[in-house]
Specification:
The protein is of the alpha+beta class. The chain contains seven helices and nine strands. The two termini are 30 Å apart.
Amino acid sequence: MTDLSLPAVNSVLLAEARRLLLEPAGIDDAHLNRVLASIHTHQVDFADLYFQYARQESWSLEEGIVKSGAFSIDRGVGIRAVHGEKQAFAYSDDVTLAALDEAAIATRAIGRQGGAAIAALDRIGAAHALYQPQDPIASLPEEAKVALLERLEKMARALDPRVAQVMASIAGEYEAVLVARSDGLIAADVRPLVRVSLTVIVEENGRREQGHAGGGGRFDYGYFTDAMLAHYAELAVHQATLNLNAREAPAGTMTVVLGHGWPGILLHEAIGHGLEGDFNRKETSAFSGRIGQRVAAKGITVVDDGTIERRRGSLNMDDEGNIERIVSGERVGTVVST
C-alpha cells in the first residue's frame, strides 16, 4: 500500500473492515448513525462504537512432530458513552443490529434525559500506512507451515551435536477494527501479525541448558525466509551452548547492565503505567503535569515509537480512531508525552 495516497489507503482499510465486520450482519453507516443517535437521546458528551474481528492460528512442533495446533475466529462490538467524568461500556460478541441497539440502551443510562446532536458519519479517519493489510494465515498453505517448522528444527540440530531437543512454533493473526464516533468520524485499520519462536536444549556431561530466538512483526509468513530461519537457529544454539559454560551469578548487590529487547518489559512495569493517559488526566500519576521536566537520571533516554514500519508494536491508528504519533526531538530523562 505504500504506493497509494493516504486517502486511498484509508479507503482500502475501511472497505476491508466493513466487509469483515458490518456486511455479514447487513449493517451500514446509516445504521451506525442511528445507534449513535439513540445514545444521544440522553445528554451524553460523546459516544463511539468499536468493532473488532480477529482470526488467529498457532502451530507447534517438538521432536519433529506437530504437537499442537489452534485456530479461532472472534468478532464483537463495544459501545462507550461518556458524560463528564463518567463512562459507560457495553459489549456484545454478536455483531447484529439488535445487539447494537441493546448495548446502546445500556450505555446511554449514564446521561440525563434530553437530546444532543451528533454529526453524520461523513469524515473518514486518517491513518498511517505502516503495514500492508495482508492476511498472513492465508499467505501459506498448512503443509508449508509445518514444513517451515521442520526446516527450522533441522537447521538447529545441524549446528551442534549437543542439541538434544528442539521446540518451534509459528503463530499468525489477521485483525480488523472499525471505529465510529458521534463526532462524525469513521476509521478502520487492518492489522496482520506473525511470529516464529524457537527453543533449543543442549546437553553435555549431564548438564542441560536452553536457548531461545525468534521474531515477527506486521507482515505475512513470507518474511521467514530460509536465511531468517537460519539466523534464529544460530542465535538459539549459540545462547544455549554459551549457557553450558556459564557460572552461577554471585549473590549480593551489584551493578546490572540490561541489553535491548525483553528487558524493556522491566521498564514498562516499573514506570510504563504511570505514563498512560488516563492516570495523567486524573492526576494520579507521579508524572502528572511534568511534561518537559527531567524525571530520570542524566543520560537516560527512553523512546516509545509506535510509528516504525511493520513492527509488532506499531499501529496505523489507536483504538479511538486517532493517528499514532511520536513526539519529535530527543530529551534526556524527560517526559515528552503522556
